[in-house]
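Fold this sequence, please.
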Amino acid sequence: MKSRLAVVLATAVVLGSLLTLVGTEPTAAGQKSKVLLKNVQHGNPGFKSIGRMSFGPDGILLVADPRGAAVVAIDTGDKGPVVKLKKKVENVKDLVAASLGAKPGGATITDMVVNPKSGKIYLSVKRADNLSAILTIDADGKIGKLDLDNARYVRVTLPGGEKSIVKNITGVAFAEDRVLAAGQCNEEFASKIYSLPLPLTHGSSADIYSAETYHVAHRRWETRAPIQSFIPYKEDGKNYIIGSFACTPIAKFPLDDLKSGAKVTGASVIELGSGNRPLDMFTYTKNGRKWLVTNTYRFHFKKNVFGPSKWWGVRVDMGILASENINKEAARRNTKTKTGPEGVEIMDVLFGVVEVSKLNDNEIVVLRDREDNGVLDLELAELP
């Protein structure tokens, strides 16, 4: 009898483990939640570089490794509670350099994200000798370092080949049923979108799509310009990427029913103006209205023509994304005014902002260039 009971119990344990691997696991409340990582490794992820980042559910940090042509998901264990940044942290670049054992000016910040579950801020940074790290900043402004030698992680390689080499990864983000990445390779259709199915499985690869976009300001179709920033987007039950490009169209790309290797044609819905490079993108809802936000850098000109900084940002009513006026007929923002067309507004809170990450629908964390002179301050700001 005892022997039979032991077999039954052992079988139950095995079945429970299999259920966890294929997509569900019990939560503290006894409910089921989607498993996001499979074949999790413990140790050092072996980054060749540390680039763009974003947070997903349950404290999972997505990190692009451009030189390694991979996306790495790290289970940080950082699940809250939320403790917001208490006060402005000044001259963050020098603090970062000091934490890496470098002289002032001896380190650069590649990206910044805030974990909405905890309020803790994460920076991907690089020293002058190319040593990379992920640093954290807590509510008191104290800098720490994410332990990459004892990480729980999965690593997914982005496909290339003998003649196709991944040159850059410009963004990573969780969608409902997948992780999306955008990047660039050395092919004629250089702009790439990568789709990584959930659960993210260590040692697996991704589907790859080539992106073609009508560049409104340039008045031509382009295949080489990479998506600089993007968000996953769902419209009428269909999945899209909403992406922004340099000089600066916002376009949407359909993702459903595509085979890996397919070419995807984007529909440009609005042009924000020539001479700009988009940096970050997110959405938020306030007073019943949903906005798409992107901050950008006016790199072709010495100063901005409508505000105090060449670093600036705009919000776009999400309803514009469903417009039938696309590509050659896409709406254009008047670069000499702060509003217009209808549903497009310059955001004062984003002047001078080099990096921005949403904490919630009311607050963002920003890394602000104090006077367009390279001195960066970290602070909490309110969304309009």
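The first helix runs from residue 2 to 22. The two ends are 68 Å apart (CA to CA).
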